[in-house]
Design a protein that fits this description.
two-stranded antiparallel ribbon, 14 helices, about 15% strand
């Protein structure tokens, strides 16, 4: 098992970490800011009573910022269950500053608020900006996990055309793809995840994830510990006199969870939603794309079906195996024309094969085709290439949450520091 072998290497790892902390950061070719973007069901730094999405009980933002005093490192917070379009727009205003505006055309088509601040007037969707200087001359790096990778790619595309063609003039200033130096996707469903096809009712899944993560942080779900951030859908925040249980129940009664509305994360995470986005969300020549894949499943001896490793996080362990992702067989819903058994290895949330790069796309008329993409294997070295997907290799025996530091048996700080060193060299 990975954790036992790592325990045997723990003294050496501790020494390496001590040396990393003692030595100054390597000479940088750039010191562009780094913004961490969470995935599906993610949460902000002030939620969950101090438990961090990035690092768990280890605060990765603080650790990385202390290592790179000459480089801004910040954590973004976007709608945990919102669509990639809405999340990308929220990400823009969180970084640049201002009040969220999802765009007239998009909001009208989706049927939700365009500017939530005009409705609520509570300041929740207005931001001072993590990096107000952001522009083509002051780009940044996006380091993302899970759905955050789809969101980051969407943001680059929206910047490239300022929302065109779906919503021209989306942002209040002229923008371009060069505003982003790099996008790193970690365990991202770039081609979607079959888990989204296996979930019949999203309410129990969402409730299990939110309550489970809240329990990790506090041992109780009675405190104000989680924010669904669905203001655009007229679903207001937890009120002062509302317990978390009551707030959670109010959100779970929301009729849109299983309505088939496509402007929400359940659709964007599916192979259909991911491939539809891959049709118009392009790879841009000036942007460096990195990917990391994870897998916490093993094949059965007789069936070949995949089962969870013994140390897979209990929040997602059931999703690894048969009946969920471990033996998925395509049905009438859109799916790439490939051997479906290649999709059985997974990390509990995302099929491993879907994480490397966005390789499949689907037109508006439903035609599925191989998406033009350049994938470079740099796990054994080699200079990253702009405009290409630079695959850093597989992280086997890592589940979907291990890779963001939700484990005591992996030096997440050292891994992320090494990756930032690579980004600084671009």
């Amino acid at each position: 098992m990975r954790r036992l072998s790592l325990l045997r290497r723990l003294p050496g790892a501790m020494l390496a970490l001590a040396l990393l902390g003692a030595w100054p950061a390597a000479q940088a070719s750039n010191t562009h800011p780094v913004v961490l973007v969470h995935g599906f069901a993610g949460f902000g730094r002030t939620e969950l009573l101090g438990y961090k999405y990035w690092g768990g009980f280890t605060d990765l933002e603080t650790q990385l910022q202390s290592r790179y005093a000459d480089q801004l490192v910040r954590t973004a917070v976007v709608g945990p269950f919102s669509s990639n379009w809405d999340r990308a727009v929220e990400l823009f205003y969180q970084i640049k500053g201002g009040c969220v505006d999802y765009g007239s055309a998009h909001s009208q088509a989706a049927g939700h608020l365009r500017r939530p601040e005009d409705f609520y007037r509570n300041g929740r969707t207005c931001y001072p900006g993590l990096y107000p200087a952001w522009d083509a001359n002051h780009p940044f790096h996006l380091v993302t996990h899970s759905m955050g990778g789809q969101t980051a790619r969407m943001l680059v595309q929206l910047l490239a055309g300022n929302g065109a063609p779906a919503n021209p003039g989306l942002f209040p200033v002229a923008t371009g793809a060069s505003w982003v130096k790099s996008v790193t996707t970690i365990a991202t469903p770039n081609d979607g995840t079959t888990l989204a096809y296996r979930v019949v009712d999203w309410v129990p899944l969402v409730q299990q994830l939110v309550s489970g993560v809240a329990g990790l942080a506090s041992g109780t779900a009675s405190s104000k510990v989680y924010d669904f951030k669905l203001d655009q859908w007229y679903l207001g925040a937890q009120t002062a006199g509302e317990s978390f249980d009551d707030y959670l129940n109010r959100v779970m009664r929301w009729p849109l969870w299983n309505s088939g509305v496509q402007d929400l994360s359940p659709y964007d995470l599916s192979p259909a939603g991911a491939m539809a986005e891959n049709d118009w969300v392009k790879d841009h020549a000036a942007v460096y794309y990195f990917s990391v894949t994870t897998n916490s499943s093993v094949p059965g001896l007789f069936t070949g079906w995949h089962y969870p490793t013994l140390d897979t996080n209990l929040l997602i362990a059931a999703f690894v195996g048969p009946g969920w992702m471990g033996n998925y067989v395509p049905d009438s819903r859109p799916f790439p024309p490939v051997d479906h058994t290649a999709w059985w290895p997974n990390d509990g949330v995302v099929n491993t094969v879907a994480q490397k790069a966005p390789t499949w796309a689907m037109t508006a008329t439903g035609t599925i085709y191989p998406r033009p993409v350049t994938v470079r294997d740099i796990r054994n070295g080699g200079a990253p290439q702009a405009g290409a997907w630079n695959w850093k290799g597989p992280m086997n025996d890592f589940d979907h949450f291990d890779v963001i530091g939700w484990t005591l048996f992996w030096d997440s700080v050292g891994w992320y520091k090494a990756h930032l060193d690579q980004l600084r060299s671009l």
